[in-house]
Amino acid sequence: MPPCGEGLDLSSNQIDTIQPGSFSNLSRLKWLHLSSNQITCINPGSFSNLPNLLSLDLACNKINNIQPGSNHLSNIQTGVFSNLPKLKKLLLNKNQLKRSSACGFRK
């Protein structure tokens, strides 16, 4: 994707993990669609260097773990989304999360 792109649609691509820095060269990105994949875990730093991201769609995945490590807890740990200062829309519907809190957005 050229650096001037505003959006990236990676829906329905059978992606199963988001690695740290996966989108680090896309700092101008405003929307990112990762819905309808096989994502089960989001690692810390997966969305680093996305200061302009307004919308993140993670719906219809198999997410049960958004935290450091992989111990199959079904919650959102502190700081996972904290480096997204302009984020206005986060879609997590139709996943397997059992518990979350606002802490996922704190540093």
Automatic annotation (TrEMBL):
Keyword Hydrolase on entry: no
Protein name: Leucine-rich repeat and immunoglobulin-like domain-containing nogo receptor-interacting protein 3
Alphabetic keyword roster: Leucine-rich repeat, Repeat, Signal
Pfam family, one: LRR_8
Gene name in the database record: LOC118415533
Record InterPro entries: Dev_Immune_Receptor, Leu-rich_rpt, Leu-rich_rpt_typical-subtyp, LRR_dom_sf
Domain of life: Eukaryota
Record PROSITE patterns: LRR (PS51450)
Membrane-crossing segments per the record: none
